[in-house]
Design brief:
The protein is an all-beta fold. The chain contains no helices and eleven strands. Strands 2, 4, 5, 6, 9, 10 and 11 form a seven-stranded mixed beta sheet that branches.
């Protein structure tokens, strides 16, 4: 199993920046990708970005492309999501999730961290 704990959310104003952190523990050696997702009230959960645990290749969804950067610190087993130029429509609960080797879906999820952007 993998345990994921997000932190860094909060209330910010439009145009501000936030950096979210996702600390992973447990079977991190079997993690293939770690992704950041978000879910706004009444909407589906969608991917924001993902990063390969070893190798570092990244993916960005169109929703926040150009305003977010995903990075990792393997020594700390932590993945970060730097978000810039935040907009009120970025308000959501942000989750990190782990895709394990040979898995087809993200199996492990954190509890989420709330990001609220005021106009």
């Amino acid at each position: 199993q993998v345990q994921l704990v997000e932190s860094g959310g909060g209330l910010v104003q439009a145009g501000d920046s936030l950096r979210l952190s996702c600390a992973a523990s447990g079977r991190t050696g079997s993690v293939y990708y770690l992704g950041w997702f978000r879910q706004a009230p009444g909407k589906e959960r969608t991917i924001v970005a993902s990063i390969r645990w070893s190798g570092g290749s990244t993916y960005y969804a169109d929703s926040m492309k150009g305003r977010v950067t995903i990075s990792r610190d393997n020594a700390k087993n932590t993945v970060y999501l730097q978000m810039n130029s935040l907009k009120p429509e970025d308000t959501a609960v942000y989750y990190c999730a782990a895709l394990m080797n040979f898995a087809r879906v993200y199996d492990y999820w954190g509890q989420g961290t709330q990001v609220t952007v005021s106009s």
